[in-house]
Every structure is written in structure tokens, then in C-alpha cells.
Write a structure and sequence with these properties.
Distance between the termini: 63 Å
CATH superfamily of the largest domain: Type I PLP-dependent aspartate aminotransferase-like (Major domain)
CATH class of the largest domain: Alpha Beta
Number of helices: 16
CATH topology of the largest domain: Aspartate Aminotransferase, domain 2
Shape: globular
Order of helices and strands: HHHHHHEHEHEHEHEEHEHHHEEHEEH
Strand content: 5-15%
Mean pLDDT: 91
Largest sheet: 7 strands, mixed
Low-confidence stretches: 314-321
Number of domains: 3
Strand order of the largest sheet: 1-7-6-5-4-2-3
CATH architecture of the largest domain: 3-Layer(aba) Sandwich
Oligomer: single chain
Helix content: 40-55%
């Protein structure tokens, strides 16, 4: 055998380097919270040149050193000052489950290729379905992200609700829906029909009938609606009971995009935010957003398990010996065939700590979101963009007496200054066309003192920018 192949698969080399990597990661976890920067901003071309230089010198850098460099140059999600996008700081034991999944590489779309992983996924689906309120059943699967879950749910909806006529099909969606919902509807050759939101940024129940009728008058056959639990931009929960009432009265498929906020199925304190979730025909929920699991890992569950099977009726003799529903052959109802063993990460973490770990995590983050709101209200220079319900909080600096100052541009520059400095990582969004700073508290060890430091920094930078530059609409 080629010597390089022997080296690549050498157990002893794997053991030595594996222990080195674990030691590096342990040291990282012990020290990441004390790092001066959560984010080191490097321009894309500079970063490209750095890695291209390493790429052009195979074996020029040791394996442990490559790991250290990757860690050092990447954003630090485990740092308590990471308050940006909706990605969990992975629980270390869940990450080890990912290592196991990668090492085994059992593409478990069919049972023969991944028996344990297939069964484990089924157990997790039963668990999630019961938490949603469907009862323990195997009506769903895990898939690679919320976008794919939404696409699959709407594909199932199209199969279940497609009428005999040839009219274009439409889906009612919130004006605040994640872009993947609009994209999925269009991929499936259907028409997204935006429903305006109310003052709370929820789908406005009073406007659904009007928008629905307008679509029908244009020749569009509406077959379903997508509700938010919660919205990506602001963390707002739709009134699921009201949406379910409407869908029931019109025989529409009701899907709930719960990628972020459906995780409150594990948090009794906040479970009221998803009252009515059990009435949805399908629900998606990301484990990698609010439940400490490395990306990607999304649960998609169905109220009626058979609906998902009816969507995929293909003849694949090399995969399936039998037709019909087989819960253990996940590829029969999933877009994915060579399927990653993502359920192993969830199973290992839950087996070690139980449901209580997920309860503590979600509750801690949502509690901290409410703490954040109280701190913001203590700063007269800051204003909220909405009344937060979750760990997503939007606010902006507004202490400009000069009416010529463009507050949108000012807040954009505050965010740029903060991320450039690297002590905190936050993002931004627009609410009704107005620019806000957007913070999602994802680390359970982010303290109220950390948040107070951030807000003080925002205010200081706001005044600094005003005093040193002219931020006017003419500069846009």
C-alpha cells in the first residue's frame, strides 16, 4: 500500500494528534472568556492570502498548529461577548458526538447503513413531537438546517393540499418571515403572499382574510400559511391559535417556522409563547440555534406522520426492498439520502444531562434578554425597536439633537466601530425600514455586567462619531 495512505489511516498517528487537539480545545475553553477580542476583523483578501500561503506549502505547518491558527483567527462563539447571530456555542460533549459521526461516516438515509443512528433519530423525533404536543410519534426527521426543513414542510403541504385545477398555488407568509420561507415557496413554483404585521410585528389576523381574497381574485389558489415562532429579525412570536383558527376554517396547511423560538418547548417559563403550536400541521426547530448542538441539526415534525411519506414515492430498488412507510429508512421522507448522523450529538448530550440542561439553557438566555431590556431602558440615549419576547433584542442610539443627522447611518457606524474593535460582536437589522443594532444573547455565561459594558460602549461611540464626523443623509 502507498505509504501516504498508511500514514493517513495510521491509528497511532491519529491517537497522538487526537490527544493534542483535545488538549488544545480544552485550553481554549478554559481561556476563551478572558480573550480581549471576540472577533478579529480581517479583510477577505487578506484572509485569502494568509490561507493561500499555507495551502501552497503542504505539510509546512504541523497539524496541532493548524488547529491553533484556525481557533485564533475565527470568531469566538464561546466568548460571553459574542452577542451576534443565532448560533449556539456548541456544548463540548455534543461536539465530540460530531467527531464520532464524522469518523464513522455512516450515511444513515437507509437503516442498513446506519442502524443505531437511524433508531436514535427516531427516538429524538418522538421526543420533540411529544414536546410540541403531537404525542410521541415518528412523524418527522432531522435535517440539515431550517431552510431545508421549511422547504420540505412546504413540499409536503403542496402534496397534501394541491387541488385538481391548474391554478398557481400560493402560501400566506408573514412580512417578517425569514427569507428561506419566501425562497422555498418560489423554489416549489408557488407564490409567496405576504401578510402585513401589526404593531407587535406579528401577522395581523385582521389582514389575513383581505390578503387571502386578493390572492384568490388574482387567480392564485392559496393552500397554506407559515407562522413564526419566532421571527429572525426581532424574535417576535405570532399568535399561533389565531393563525390555526384561520387555517382550520379554510382547510389550509399550517406550518410553523420555529427554527429559533420553538426551543421554548423545553422551557415551562416561556412555553406560553407557543400556545397553539400543537395545532400546526408541521413544525421546524433548529437544535443548533437554541439547544447547544453544532450546526447543522434541525428537527422537522408532522402532526400526521403519513403526510411526509406520501410526498416521496419513488422507485429506488437499490435502496428500498419494500414500498410503503418505513420509519427506519429516513430517506423515504427526506430530501437527503447520504444523511449525516446529526442525531447522535443530540442523543449523547441529552443522555448525559437530561431534559433539564435544555430547560436551563433556553430559560437562561430568555431571562438574560429581559435583563438586557431593563438595562437599555436605563440609558436615555437608547431606544428599543420592539418589545422583546425572546433573547433577540433590537435597539439604537438616538441622542442626536441635530435633525440633519442620519440616525440609520450613525447606528451603522456604531456597529462598524464595535466590530472593528473586536471586544464585542453584534449585528444589525431594519424594522419598518429603520436601522437598529441587533443582539442575540446566545452564551449562557454572558452576564448583566457584560451587557452593561456593551451599552456603555454603544453610547460612547455614538457621541464620539457625532463629535468627529458629520453623519447626514447626504453622506449615504
Amino acid at each position: 500500500m502507498n505509504d501516504l495512505l498508511k500514514q493517513a489511516y495510521d491509528p497511532e498517528r491519529f491517537g497522538v494528534q487526537g490527544h493534542q487537539v483535545i488538549d488544545i480545545l480544552q485550553n481554549y475553553l478554559e481561556n476563551v472568556a478572558h480573550k480581549d477580542q471576540v472577533y478579529n476583523q480581517v479583510e477577505p483578501e487578506e484572509e485569502y492570502q494568509f490561507w493561500k500561503k499555507i495551502w501552497n506549502k503542504p505539510s509546512g505547518t504541523t497539524y496541532p498548529e493548524l488547529i491553533r491558527i484556525l481557533l485564533e483567527r475565527s470568531i469566538h462563539l464561546h466568548h460571553p461577548h459574542y452577542i451576534g447571530h443565532q448560533v449556539s456555542p456548541a456544548a463540548p460533549l455534543a461536539a465530540l458526538g460530531g467527531l464520532l459521526s464524522d469518523f464513522m461516516n455512516n450515511g444513515m438515509g437507509i437503516y442498513e447503513m446506519g442502524g443505531p443512528a437511524s433508531v436514535i433519530e427516531s427516538i429524538i423525533v418522538e421526543w420533540v413531537s411529544e414536546k410540541v404536543g403531537y404525542g410521541a410519534q415518528r412523524g418527522g426527521f432531522l435535517t440539515s438546517g431550517g431552510s431545508l426543513a421549511n422547504l420540505t414542510a412546504l413540499l409536503v403541504a403542496r402534496t397534501a393540499k394541491r387541488p385538481d385545477d391548474n391554478k398557481p398555488l400560493g402560501i400566506l407568509v408573514s412580512a417578517e418571515s425569514h427569507y428561506s420561507v419566501d425562497r422555498s415557496v418560489r423554489i416549489l413554483d408557488m407564490v409567496p403572499i405576504p401578510v402585513p404585521v401589526n404593531s407587535k410585528l406579528q401577522i395581523d389576523p385582521a389582514r389575513i382574510e383581505i390578503v387571502h381574497q386578493e390572492a384568490e381574485n388574482r387567480g392564485i389558489r392559496v393552500i397554506g400559511m407559515v407562522g413564526n415562532a419566532c421571527t429572525t429579525a426581532t424574535g417576535t412570536y405570532d399568535d399561533l391559535h389565531q393563525l390555526a383558527d384561520y387555517c382550520t376554517s379554510r382547510d389550509l396547511w399550517f406550518h410553523v417556522d420555529g427554527a429559533h423560538g420553538a426551543a421554548v418547548i423545553f422551557a415551562p417559563k416561556y412555553r406560553h409563547l407557543i400556545d397553539g403550536l400543537e395545532r400546526a400541521d408541521s413544525v421546524s426547530m433548529d437544535f443548533h440555534k437554541m439547544l447547544m448542538i453544532p450546526a447543522l441539526c434541525t428537527a422537522l415534525v408532522f402532526k400526521r406522520p403519513l403526510d411526509s411519506y406520501r410526498t416521496y414515492i419513488q422507485d429506488a430498488q437499490y435502496l428500498f426492498e419494500n414500498g410503503g412507510e418505513e420509519w427506519f429508512n429516513v430517506a423515504k421522507r427526506s430530501i437527503e439520502c447520504t444523511k449525516y448522523m446529526m442525531g447522535v450529538k443530540v442523543f449523547l448530550l441529552r443522555q448525559q444531562f437530561g431534559d433539564a440542561l435544555f430547560t436551563d439553557f433556553v430559560t437562561r438566555l430568555y431571562d438574560r434578554g429581559h435583563d438586557f431590556v431593563q438595562l437599555i431602558n436605563n440609558f436615555p440615549e437608547l431606544e428599543l425597536g420592539h418589545e422583546p419576547e425572546s433573547n433577540i433584542v433590537c435597539f439604537r442610539f438616538n441622542a442626536a439633537d441635530n435633525p440633519d443627522i442620519d440616525l440609520d447611518l450613525l447606528n451603522q457606524n456604531i456597529r462598524k466601530a464595535i466590530t472593528h474593535e473586536g471586544n464585542f460582536y453584534i449585528v444589525q437589522t431594519k424594522i419598518r425600514g429603520v436601522q437598529y443594532l441587533r443582539c442575540t444573547i446566545m452564551n449562557p455565561f454572558t452576564s448583566k455586567e457584560d451587557l452593561k459594558v456593551l451599552l456603555t460602549d454603544v453610547v460612547e461611540k455614538g457621541y464620539q462619531i457625532i463629535s468627529h464626523t458629520r453623519i447626514t443623509s447626504n453622506e449615504l
